[in-house]
Specification:
Layout: H1 8-12, E1 14-15, H2 26-32, E2 45-46, E3 50-59, E4 67-76, E5 79-84, E6 93-96, E7 100-104, E8 106-107, H3 131-139, H4 144-160, E9 163-170, H5 176-189, E10 192-197, H6 211-221, E11 227-233, H7 249-261, E12 266-269, H8 275-281, E13 289-292, H9 299-308, E14 311-314, H10 316-319, H11 328-334, E15 338-340, H12 352-367, H13 375-381, H14 384-389, E16 407-411, H15 423-430, E17 436-441, E18 444-448, E19 451-452, H16 457-474
Parallel strand pairs: 3-6, 3-7, 8-9, 9-10, 10-11, 11-12, 12-13, 13-14, 14-15
Antiparallel strand pairs: 1-2, 3-4, 4-5, 7-16, 16-17, 17-18, 18-19
Length: 479
């Protein structure tokens, strides 16, 4: 037995149910004309065992259960079996939760994982080396292997920061093989998520996305319990082409209509003005639509979004540096559901604590505290509200018996947070990702004692480093 009472064998027993090498169809490879991606995953996933977290301060995010200053969470075969002050679980391994907050894993609702490996090219003080010019210039040269290695790196960071569900907003799917490579990285990661299929950077605005391949991937992902599929649309604002493309309402109707026929949700960037009135006028708003970046909207826009059940994803760390007001108080007051997203970890950090804190700060700055945004509400936004946005509320976002076991343990004995008072206050005001001791995703213990249990992080980083060096050479990027 491990010194903490957890059976190491459970951690190290590999499963081949996910992460199989054969998930990348040959058809896609041939179409892309790319070198065969490496087939060996960075790690096999830990098995789902049976364990009980004992004596943690439980923040369940489930109104019927509430919070337990000292309680147990019993996990069996990937599911939450029980949450109570004392759980009888003979035979289960024990994780000592004393001195820890036990809460649902964070749910990110918009993240461009394909950009992650571009980090070494970025330089905030050089306008030619900031996020948009770098991702566009080098994104044109991506192979499927680049996509795979980049997504894998982003997902490793997600786990390290306690994110157990992510929305992979893939707006550079350059071929079916690129889509498969991103999906493969997600399947190997152990995270839950939605893959939103987009168009390749640089594609003409009058050309539709590869709807046949979206349908093909729908058939594939339809069998996967951890993944769902959606589409990410190019901007719909009648503007001339930006780096991410912009389509007119007729093209949006065509692409969105095809997605809706397949039952797929849609996501769209709206940073900038103009999209919402167009979408409202053309009848494209609906509860299957997620918008990203609540900036520069009008009261009429907010009313239309609430009426049509549209959700909004806010990326606090990046948006705080953009022009325009971050309008989450207005959205929430209008009845629009708002969740939190990371956006990218190329120019930003993955820190859900900092995201919550930023929203709290911006709210005070903008409204003088007139809009009540409690610390508990912020934690809900980062967990159950995100699960609702992505359609995962039945399986994650709260510690509820019957849901899948996506949870984290946050240490409260570190110098930055101890001694602990109100746990929500500590999470929003004080906590940082390094306080996360344990990360459980779908019942698999992915991190323990602040370290990966199976994932080979060094290999993931070296693979990403090699890929970006090759990418720069192919793109003739100045070193
Ligand atoms: Zn984005």
């Amino acid at each position: 037995m491990h010194k903490d009472g957890f059976n190491r064998r459970t951690l190290l027993t590999a499963t081949t149910a996910l992460g199989a090498a054969g998930l990348l169809p040959r058809r896609g490879l041939a179409q892309a004309g790319a070198a065969a991606p490496e087939t060996r995953p960075a790690a096999t996933l830990p098995a789902r065992g049976e364990f009980v977290v004992r004596g943690a301060h439980i923040l369940s995010m489930d109104d019927a259960i509430g919070d337990l200053p000292s309680g147990d969470v019993h996990v069996r075969d990937g599911a939450i079996a029980a949450v109570a002050a004392n759980v009888n679980a003979p035979g289960a391994s024990v994780i000592d939760g004393k001195g820890m907050i036990c809460m649902p894993g964070f749910v990110d609702t918009h993240w461009h994982h394909w950009t992650t490996l571009l980090r070494p090219v970025m330089q905030a003080d050089d306008p030619k080396r900031t996020y948009f010019p770098v991702t566009f210039a080098l994104g044109l040269h991506y192979t499927p292997e680049d996509s795979y290695r980049s997504v894998r790196l982003g997902l490793a960071q997600a786990l390290a920061a306690g994110v157990t569900t992510t929305h992979n907003w893939a707006h550079n799917v350059r071929s079916p093989a690129h889509a498969d490579a991103e999906v493969r990285a997600m399947r190997e990661s152990g995270l839950r998520g939605r893959f939103s299929y987009g168009t390749p950077l640089g594609m003409p605005n009058d050309k539709p996305m590869d709807l046949a391949d979206v349908a093909r991937l729908k058939r594939d992902i339809g069998k996967d319990a951890m993944l769902t599929l959606g589409i990410c649309s190019r901007n719909v604002d009648n503007a001339s082409a930006g780096t991410r493309g912009s389509v007119d309402p007729d093209m949006a109707k065509k692409e969105w209509g095809a997605a809706r026929e397949l039952g797929l949700p849609i996501t769209l960037h709206t940073s900038g003005t103009g999209a919402i009135p167009i979408l409202n006028k053309t009848g494209l708003l609906g509860p299957d639509l997620q918008l990203v970046h609540p900036l520069n909207t009008s009261a009429e826009d907010q009313e239309a979004l609430a009426k049509n059940g549209v959700t909004y994803s806010i990326s606090p760390l990046g948006e705080a540096g953009r022009a325009g007001e971050m309008q989450f108080p207005e959205m929430m007051q209008a009845g629009v559901k708002v969740s939190i997203s990371i956006d990218n970890v190329t120019a930003e950090r993955c820190d859900c604590f900092a995201c919550m804190r930023m929203l709290q700060t911006i709210n005070k700055h903008r409204t003088g505290g007139k809009f009540a945004l409690t610390t508990k509400r912020l934690v809900r936004m980062a967990t159950i509200d995100g699960a609702r946005d992505l359609g995962f509320a039945d399986v994650t976002g709260s510690l509820t018996p019957g849901k899948r076991a996506d949870l984290i343990l946050v240490r409260t004995d570190a110098p930055n947070i101890a001694p602990i008072g109100d746990p929500y206050d500590a999470l929003v005001q004080l906590a940082q990702p390094s306080n996360i001791d344990t990360v459980v995703a779908d019942g698999r213990i992915m991190r323990r004692n602040g370290r990966f249990t199976a994932l080979d992080h060094e290999k993931i980083i070296s693979d990403a480093s090699d890929a970006v060096a090759d990418l720069k050479a192919r793109a003739k990027w100045p070193s």
